Amino acid sequence: MTKPTIHWKTVWYHGTRTHIVTFSAVSDAEQGEIEAAADGEGYERDGEFWTPPAGPNDFFEIARLKGFDLEFGREDEDGPLNLHRLYPTDETRNRLEATPDFTLWKLAGYCPVQAERWVLARLRNEQFFSLVDLNIRISALIEDLNTRTMRRYGKSRRALFDEVERSELKPLPSTPFEYAEWKTAKVHPDYHIEVEKTFYSVPHGLIGKRVDVRLTYRTVEIFFDHRRVASHIRSSQRSGHVTVNQHMPKAHQRYANTTPHTLRREAAKVGANTATFIERLLSDRPHPEQGYRSAQGVLSLARRYQSDRLERACERALIINALSYSSVANILRSGLDQAPAMSEAVKPAPPHGNIRGKTYYQ
Asked: Which of 13, 233, 237, 293 has the most neighbouring CB atoms within 10 Å?
């Protein structure tokens, strides 16, 4: 007795993968049972044309469990790429078909069924324990596919590539592709811009201007008016400064009349602790100008919280050695400046035979 069989052939219809399904040695009841199973797995049926669901399904396993054989229609191994596989719009398809002397095999390669048959199908019973081994095996199978002689042309894909396409290829770029992101930034009064929490210098003449930043894994390039004005090695130091001496002005009085002297004078008006804090803030930087923005920010807190609170906040920041704008702002924001006065800084540990001391590491 002939076993009930489902005949299955894959076709492409208007850019959609569809299956032509026919039956042999199948009763109406059995066919209805299989069609109901296909509906349950998400297939859309229109007569013998079945459109599969988007995700995986268990239809084939269900059919086997019901006692059906599956026979898959053989596709042309060396057939040209079907136009519908390119997913063109209707307008593009009509223009291509209207092109004089247009032939499909001039458009693009071969059916992806070749990779499924000669690569994936041959791997289905093999085991691999690392991606390296799998990639080596795939490379060997692809090389075998490319050197296999095609019946239609009497040549391999590799031979056709060497004969027709290789001479038309353009040379590769001299440098490898490097992923980059573009950002915009405004140049601060200290002639630096902030990129990913790090500050990079630009020529001081661009203070107040907006610039474009090209950010790669290794470099930071800065452009103004479509012209590169600065380039730096990218730094991972948060809140750090990357400064080129040539970007510094000869006289910083040229912008905003801001100098270390004016900052110290304004700090002294608030109080001795504020003046000491600003002095430390400027002297701890490789270039005093790099502390201008932080110093101006600290002094501006006097307008928001009053001078006496700023004075106490600077005193507390000096005791804990927290020399940054954010530290003073956090002290004021949390009201720690109004808490009981802190004791002096912790005294150094007394001499002891088990304590090496800092000279041990010098």
From this structure: 293
From CA 256, how far away is CA 249, in angstroms rounded? 13
Collapsing DSSP to helix, strand or coil, 324 comes out as coil
Nearest residue to 112 via CA among 144, 62, 141, 77: 77
Contacts of 169 (CB under 8 A, 6+ apart): none
Residue with tokens 């507390």: 316
Helix axes 260-270, 307-319, angle to 10 degrees: 110
Name beta bridge partners: 228.
223
pTM: 0.36
Q: Please report the DSSP string for 306-333 in residue order.
A: -HHHHHHHHHHHHHTT--SHHHHHHHHH
5-13 and 69-72 beta bridge pairing: parallel
* Mean of the per-residue pLDDT values of the chain: 79
Parallel, antiparallel, or unpaired: how do β-strands 181-186 and 192-195 relate?
Answer: unpaired
Sign of CA dihedral 174, 177, 178, 182: positive
Parallel/antiparallel/unpaired status of strands 219-224 and 241-242: unpaired
Alpha carbon of residue 96 to chain centroid: 36
Looking at the DSSP assignment, which residues form a beta bridge with residue 210?
186
- Distance (Å, whole) CA 269 – CA 81: 81
